[in-house]
Amino acid sequence: MKGQFRPKIAALVCLALFCGALFSCKNENSAKAKAERENERAMEALLRQPDISNESRYAIINKITSKWLKEQKYDDLILYLADYVERNPDDKYNAYWLLMTAYTYIQLREERVAEYYFERIMRDYPDLKVKDRSIHFICLERLIQISTNHENRIKYFNTLINRFPSNVSITEMYVRLAREYEQIGEWVKALKTYTMFLEQPDASSIQITDMHDIYNYARNLIDFNNSPKNWTFKSLDALADSVKGAIARYQPRKLDECRSKVNFFAVSWRQDDSIPTGSVDFSMRNFMHGNRISVTEELIPGPSINEAYLKTKGWTLAVPTWYFYFRKVNFPADPDIHGNWEWAGIYIGEMM
Question: Which tens digit of pLDDT belongs to each residue from 248-287?
Fold first, then answer.
């Protein structure tokens, strides 16, 4: 019988030890929580001292709020700082407290509320440096990241360029600003800003992750804007008829007049589309001489409704088959030209 009690006794001993450890752990946690509350009350008491310095006040509040931020007590943090700023409008660190409030709202994924606070800091509070960083600069960086309003983003980029030129890449700021002007149809300002981008010494070499080949894009846009654009046609049929007629009547000069004078290309179908083709300038006479050029009657549809090909044969080259590439002009800056058609380039060889 005694042997039967031994497992029960062992189990009771283990339970007692577990309960003791649990009770001890609870006591430790309770003591720690009590100590933290007492520490917070002590810091709050210091804040109420009439002769406390601004620096000491800042250090205490920063310690309290940083702890809450680490513990993700976001609601407590927001209520505390909002109340503090309201009650202490003359505190020179209020811009920092509102910055912390805005950052907390970002943690809560409430970007629109955070945007309000970043804007409020920029509008209502003088700049302040914390750990050698400008609070206004931090706000602008964050505003550009979260704002979806193009007019506001234009304001932010202009402010960065004017106030913090040494903190940013001016070259990148110009091209991003130009893109924002494009989005709202401010083409005069967009073209002017793209020109300023192109004038920067590192414009041709800058790499911007979300803007592939931005230098060539800007260069082509400005070159097209500065050109007479007198080679465009109101319709695809008009363009095709003019090209076919020039070939049929053996009029290389007329054919040259039909093609784009800006960014015209001549490439193989096998050329990698990611490699910039550049612009070529030549006379069609050099390739028509002594040859009988033929064209297909029907145009070949392109990848989109804004593109088409004309197949031609008989050119003076090792590969005599050329496809003329026609496309709609996409240039909203000039409504008289936008939507016209142009002969933009040549693909050499059989279509792949």
Answer: 999 999 999 999 999 899 999 877 544 445 556 678 888 8
Tell me the per-residue pLDDT of 76-105, one tens digit each, with 9 for 90 and over. 999 999 999 999 999 999 999 999 999 999
State how far the Cα of 79 lies from the Cα of 101, in Å rounded to an integer: 9
Beta-strand relationship, 265-268 and 300-301? unpaired
3-state helix/strand/coil string of the chain: CHHHHHHHHHHHHHHHHHHHHHHHHHHHHHHHHHHHHHHHHHHHHHHCCCCCCHHHHHHHHHHHHHHHHHCCCHHHHHHHHHHHHHHCCCCCCHHHHHHHHHHHHHHCCCHHHHHHHHHHHHHHCCCCEECCEEHHHHHHHHHHHHCCCHHHHHHHHHHHHHHCCCCCCHHHHHHHHHHHHHHCCCHHHHHHHHHHHHCCCCCCCCCECCECCHHHHHHHHHHHHHCCCCCCECCHHHHHHHHHHHHHCCCHHHHHHHECCCCCEEEECCCCCCCCCCCCCCCCHHHHCCCCCEECCCCEECCCCCEEEEEEECCCCCCCCEEEEEEECCCCCCCCCCCCEEEEEEEECCCC
In the chain, the N- to C-terminal Cα span, in Å, equals: 93
| Residue position matching structure tokens 């913090």 | 164
- Closest to 322 measured CA to CA, from 299, 301, 351: 351
Are 121 and 135 spatial neighbours (Cβ–Cβ below 8 Å)?
yes
Q: How many CB atoms lie within 10 A of CB 122?
A: 18
Which amino acid makes up residue 249?
A: R
Residue 74's Cβ-count burial label (10 Å; 0-12, 13-18, 19+) is middle
Whether residue 221 contacts residue 194, with contact meaning beta carbons closer than 8 Å, is answered with: yes
- Whole-angstrom CA distances from 198 to 33, 113, 160, 162, 271 are 61, 37, 19, 18, 27
Over its C-alpha atoms, the chain yields an Rg (Å, rounded) of 35
